[in-house]
Amino acid sequence: MKALVRKHFYRRAGGWILTLALVYGVFIGSLFVMQKSLMYFPDQARFVPAEWALPELQPLEVTAEDGLRITSWYRPAQARDKMTIVFFQGNAGHLGYRNYKVRPWLDAGYGVLMVGYRGFGNPGSPSEEGLYMDAQAAIDAIKAKTAPGGGVPEAGIVFYGESMGTGVAVQMATEYNAAALILESPYTSIPDVGADRYPLVPVRWLLRDKYDSLAKIGNVHMPLLLLHGELDEVVPVKFGKKLFAAANEPKQSYWAPDAGHNNVYNLKVQQIILNFIADLPTDPLLNRGS
Predict the structure, then answer these.
(1) How many other CB atoms are there within 10 angstroms of residue 195's CB atom?
(2) Which stretch of DSSP H or E encloses residue 244?
(3) pLDDT of 192-203, one tens digit each?
(4) Segment 27-52, tens digit of pLDDT
(5) Over the range 208-221, which residues count as b (16 or more CB within 10 Å of their CB) and which as e?
(6) Domain 41-286 is of which CATH architecture?
(7) Are 46 and 116 in contact (CB under 8 A)?
(8) Angstrom distance (rounded) from CA 210 to CA 192
(9) Cα(40)–Cα(42) distance, rounded to whole angstroms?
(10) What pTM value is reported for the model?
């Protein structure tokens, strides 16, 4: 009798385990298929700078390596010794929601390039390689001698990435000899953050877009400013600190004690950024063409 009960129990337990395994497998498969929609949250509306108090910005139409026509937004530097800040947004909304970050840069006379992403009011759908191509095309356009302002040397460019855009900024910093790199709320890699948040999901196997900044930061040789909120629950500050520890000198950081992910940029941080850029050497800009 006991043997029959035990056999029945094992059979039922095995059935439950198989059912749970099938449900888990379907769940994982769904995550794999839907990963792009879970990673990118673009606003499909076209960004119109004048509607966001940034009327100086003009459209910069470029063609990415894969043939997609992408619109970025650009205002040249207003003086020969002024840097040009190339801005890479995070994974949600559109560029207009970042107007409060860009406005002080424009007012200070810096050049500003707000890089447009595919799928964010542009044709196509976002991907890691796609965003790299969009960034490369926009950067190469402002470097060209035919660009407004006469072309920007790499030594006159500051890369600025926020959140997911820090991965794009780090990649560009490995490809261009820019003046500096600024990272706001960065991560080591997207799989690292995902695995930390969902420990029961094989995130590292599932994700195709990895943005592995930790593997690349050692190849970045330019001044670095890293900003991160100590209370960040989206990208915990431990990831920013790990990335900062792996970065080359010269580097500086600010760990905002009362800030989370979306409110790390405040007046104090704004001034830290402006001071950092103002301290960069301008000789390469003043001596160009001489």
Answers:
(1) 16
(2) helix 237-246
(3) 988 887 765 666
(4) 344 444 444 555 787 888 888 999 99
(5) ebebbbbebbeebe
(6) 3-Layer(aba) Sandwich (3.40)
(7) no
(8) 9
(9) 6
(10) 0.88
